[in-house]
């Protein structure tokens, strides 16, 4: 998704159920050494892209934008604009889960990325449907907000604004914390929880998205594409964008249905 500057009022969604809050607290106190003991499953082995598949249109199959470098997943399309969306998609599907990962962003990277959840790639159409938690280094305030890539929807879900309208910085959480590679710890932590139609996303411990998608994520459009409530996790290189970003420490924990 691209950045546009249009001011629109912020519309808050329904607060999450207590289960989400409980899991969020657990995420906040979990570290990599305890992950396996608490039911966390690694999605990246630090050596290769086993468990992941690059999804894109045929013209982009040989771009080599997704690689493993220094124990991280590196997305690098710098110097290349003539490409469509190029995704790195988990082979497995997930329904209710907690996801935790770290990403490193660069000041000289003008491109957009994001983390798709409960999504599905249509090879014939060359399109990935489903909701996305945004990562936008050129405008860090937008990171953690939720967009819907689903065909026929294509709008911001959180902040929950009408299709055709765009988020602006006034809608961002003023407590948001974002680090570039050359400052602070150099890495950002994402925590995403999806239980039923409720989704929360935290960036460096700060709540950004708090969304109840009842009537949206389970509507006829999402059912048609079999997304919104179950699907794959994916990392994005946006169409025509020059992007450099790293991911590591990617773990997921399946959760019981509400």
Automatic annotation (TrEMBL):
Annotated ranges, domain 3-keto-alpha-glucoside-1,2-lyase/3-keto-2-hydroxy-glucal hydratase: 39-253
Superkingdom per UniProt: Bacteria
Matching InterPro entries: AL/BT2_dom
Name this protein carries in UniProt: DUF1080 domain-containing protein
GO MF annotation: an example: hydrolase activity
